[in-house]
TrEMBL record, chain A:
Lineage of origin: Bacteria, Bacillati, Actinomycetota, Actinomycetes, Micrococcales
GO cellular component terms given for this protein: cytosol
Enzyme class: transferase
Official protein name in the record: Aspartate carbamoyltransferase
Organism: Knoellia aerolata DSM 18566
Domain named Aspartate/ornithine carbamoyltransferase carbamoyl-P binding: residues: 3-145
Record note on quaternary structure: Heterododecamer (2C3:3R2) of six catalytic PyrB chains organized as two trimers (C3), and six regulatory PyrI chains organized as three dimers (R2).
TrEMBL record, chain B:
Protein name: Dihydroorotase
UniProt: substrate binding residues: H59, L60, R61, N91, N278, H309, F323, G324
Chain ranges of the Dihydroorotase catalytic domain: 48-237
Class of the enzyme per the UniProt entry, highest EC level: hydrolase
InterPro entries, alphabetized: DHOase, DHOase/Allantoinase_Hydrolase, DHOase_cat, Dihydroorotase_CS, Metal-dep_hydrolase_composite, Metal_Hydrolase
Originating species: Knoellia aerolata DSM 18566
Physiological role: Catalyzes the reversible cyclization of carbamoyl aspartate to dihydroorotate.
Domain of life: Bacteria
Cofactor, free-text remark: Binds 2 Zn(2+) ions per subunit.
Family that this chain belongs to: Belongs to the metallo-dependent hydrolases superfamily. DHOase family. Class I DHOase subfamily.
Length: 335, 430
């Protein structure tokens, strides 16, 4: 296991498999009357959230607490620059208290990579800007596998505001590593830069016509449909003209849902939340039998328990933690 | 009377000669020159003699950010880099948008005495892009400002740019434009727009944001009959427009930075803000085009865009960190390795792009002169076999945002001479 989880690319297929397998065991804890295992007793995990988050933060917090770690939430809104303290100073200050891991959500892409270079503790990326959100991709894979079995050879379509999506970027890596075929669907303005060469290099396909991808002539059947959030604010940036036009082109409407389930009753529908019901996904679709939305949330805790376990208490993580040398001056002089 | 006898130096890499400098001027050039024993001697066997370099584009941070650089420390870095004249950009605090501010920069440069520091005046008041600064008063001042720039910001309003170009024509001024359409590449844009920016999730800075402004400014220069200079051109698309403008007879000149000649966008993959610069590092294909354009003269000059920053201003998340990197001390080494060793330019060509052309663009008559009797002795001795590895800690700059740290180069600046006086030498830096 890597020391940090900054990007899905830190995990090869075997590591992903290990984490998902352990998550299955962790998932059982969720259904116990006493939800507590001693695995991370004595460890301190800082949830450092520079951006608002409800589900990811509480999911990590619950995961840590059920594993008996001391979890502390620190939220800091606004950029560090405005407060005059550099990001490096902020994280080194907390690191100096002797914490074991940082779970970091930051509005800036790459922030977790930078922090990992500055601190002794493990760093887990809980979403950095428009870059990655690896634990979301892990829980997505976990949830889809529970319903579909192995993702090898399965076809996953990802639809929505892709250019601003960290969920997309992590899923692109994990789904390919798990052997799934991936098709991205969005208007060209909501595709990430350089998507054509990227798709060619990484082996996925790109389309702009949702109906053609979902059921067009000769289209590869879709096993899972991942709808990503579209922020209404994007309209002012000129990414698309109106919510109505977006929904007609790219929303999972009631009609589209009916056509899809006619074609393939086993199809599954994911959404990382929070959902804009009526925009990218209709209420009917969000609450359909094919929807995995709540399963995703449930799996989030188990997957994050697994990640914390493997990074902090797994063979490598445990050894690392034991070998940690205090860096402060007084510790040095006492030796 | 002061005098300096340089022996055994090879002007532009040619045959070795002796050069006698008296009262700051080249007095004699020849073999086996004799001079009284009290004349200072500088043994330059094996070294190449070039006209002192001229930098059209530096940020010396004084006044306002003396914790990052001062005119004195920036001058020392410039001298160590072989420069005898540098233009100091106007984006200080306060902005150089008045005659008084320009004279203060000039005077601080003279007090430091290591290079001629020529202030650049702001095009618009407070760099706000709205009202013209006192361009003619800056020109009439002791600082004789004739290059104007809102660098760091683009003069994006076409009407303001048109008026600025028209206005400075009265006294032969030039506007140096930071070509970045802010509607296509906003203030957050920090990564070349393409597959890498897509993967890294960083705000993209597309080539068209540069080339479209260059094209507009070329048309404005033609319309007004004025002269425009393109700062730090960084893309193949930008070069294409520069080439077209020149072929159309438009008075347009362009500069390229050493970092855009060598470093590529791949450096951003680790999110190290040391490599965050504006315009951003570009793909390998652009670097190749920039080198070819510098070689064929489409790009007139190399300018460093030396941009020191206090460490804490770089230790933020990548998108929040300050733009810019050091460049004065390493410019020659980079240009020598990328252009001369590759065979794209000879040493005379390097002298043209780093001294003659920038001095001509800036109107600095004492600099960028051929090495001949009667010329001001603004000179640099370089060692084309001076292999070395850059050590950021050894920099004369106050700042350490040095992307060149740990890189090895084959050429090195040996000694810099400003009006006959040694301003940087290996002994001094040892």
């Amino acid at each position: 296991m890597p020391r940090h989880l900054l990007s899905m690319s830190d995990l090869d297929a075997a590591a992903i498999r290990t984490i998902l397998d352990t998550a299955t065991q962790m998932h059982e804890v969720q259904h116990r009357e006493v939800k507590k295992i001693p695995t991370l007793r004595g460890r301190t995990i800082i949830n450092l959230f520079f951006e608002d988050s409800t589900r990811t933060r509480s999911s990590f917090e619950i995961a840590g607490k059920w594993m008996s770690a001391d979890t502390i939430n620190i939220t800091g809104k606004g950029s560090a620059t405005s407060k005059g303290e550099s990001l490096r100073d902020t994280v080194r200050t907390i690191d100096a208290m002797g914490v074991d891991a940082f779970v970091i959500r930051h509005g800036a892409s790459g922030a977790c990579h930078q922090v990992a270079g500055w601190v002794d503790a493990h760093v887990i990326n809980a979403g950095d800007g428009t870059h990655e959100h690896p634990t979301q991709a892990l829980l997505d894979a976990y949830t889809m596998e529970r319903r579909l079995g192995s993702l090898e050879g399965r076809h996953v379509a990802i639809v929505g505001d892709l250019t601003h999506s960290r969920v997309l970027r992590s899923n692109l890596i994990s789904l390919r590593r798990l052997g799934a075929a991936v098709t991205l669907v969005a208007p060209p303005t909501l595709m990430p830069s350089g998507i054509t060469s990227w798709a060619h290099r990484d082996g996925f396909t790109v389309g702009h016509d949702l109906d053609a991808v979902l059921g067009g002539e000769g289209a590869r059947p879709v096993d899972a449909l991942m709808m990503l959030r579209v922020q209404k604010e994007r309209m002012s940036g000129g990414y698309f003209p109106t919510a109505r036009e977006y929904t007609v082109g790219y929303g999972l409407t009631r009609d589209r849902l009916a056509r899809l389930t006619d074609l393939n009753p086993e199809i599954v529908i994911c959404h990382p939340g929070p959902m804009n019901r009526g925009l990218e996904i209709s209420a009917d679709a969000a609450d359909a039998a094919q929807s995995l939305v709540l399963d995703q949330v449930s799996a989030g805790v188990a997957v994050r328990m697994s990640v914390l376990y493997h990074l902090l208490a797994g063979a490598d993580g445990g050894a690392d933690a034991a070998a940690r040398v205090p860096r402060s001056a007084w510790a040095g002089s006492a030796a | 009377m002061s005098a300096l006898l340089i022996t055994g130096a090879r002007p532009l890499g040619g045959d070795a000669v002796d050069v006698l400098v008296r009262d700051g001027v080249v007095a004699e050039i020849g073999s086996g020159l004799d001079a009284p024993s009290d004349v200072e001697r500088l043994a330059a066997d094996g070294l190449t003699l070039l006209p002192g370099f001229v930098d059209l584009h530096t940020h010396l941070r004084e006044p306002g950010r003396e914790d990052a650089e001062t005119i004195a420390t920036g001058s020392a870095a410039a001298a160590a880099g072989g420069f005898t004249a540098v233009l100091a950009m106007a984006n200080t605090s306060p902005v150089t948008d008045t005659a008084e501010a320009a004279e203060r920069v000039l005077d601080l440069g003279r007090a430091a005495g290591l290079v001629d520091v020529q202030p650049v005046g702001a095009v618009t008041k407070a760099l706000a892009g709205e009202e013209l600064a006192e361009l003619a008063l800056m020109h009439r001042s002791r600082a004789r400002v004739s290059v104007f720039s809102d660098d760091g910001r683009c003069v994006h309003d076409a009407r303001v740019m048109r008026r600025a170009l028209e206005y400075v024509r009265a006294f032969g001024g030039v506007v140096s434009q930071h070509s970045q359409d802010p509607t296509l590449a906003g203030s957050a844009a920090c990564c070349h727009e393409g597959e890498l920016s897509g993967r890294l999730g960083l705000p993209g800075w597309p080539a068209v944001a540069e080339s479209s402004i260059i094209a507009r400014d070329a048309q404005l220069a033609r319309h007004t009959g004025s002269r425009v200079h393109v700062a730090h051109v960084s893309t193949a698309e930008g070069v294409e427009v520069v080439r077209w403008a020149k072929s159309a007879g438009i008075h347009l000149t362009a500069e390229v930075t050493p970092h855009h000649l060598l470093l590529t966008q791949d450096r951003l993959s680790g999110y190290d803000p040391t490599f965050k610069v504006n315009p951003p590092l570009r793909p390998r294909e652009d670097v190749e085009v920039l080198r070819a354009a510098l070689a064929d003269g489409t790009i007139d000059a190399v300018a460093t865009d030396h941009a020191p920053h206090a460490r804490h201003d770089k230790e933020h998340a990548f998108v929040d960190a300050a733009f810019g990197m050091l460049g004065l001390e390493t410019a020659f080494a980079v240009v020598h390795d990328t252009m001369v060793r590759s065979g794209a330019l000879d040493l005379a060509g390097l002298a043209d792009r780093m001294s003659l052309a920038p001095a001509r663009i800036a109107g600095l008559s004492d600099h960028g002169r051929a090495i001949e009797v009667g010329a001001p002795a603004n000179l640099v001795l370089v060692d084309t076999d001076g292999g070395h590895t850059v050590d950021a800690a050894a920099s004369k700059s106050l700042s350490r945002n040095n992307p060149w740290h740990g890189m090895s180069f084959t050429g090195a600046v040996h000694t810099t001479i400003l009006r006959g006086r040694v301003t940087a030498s290996p002994e001094e830096s040892a």
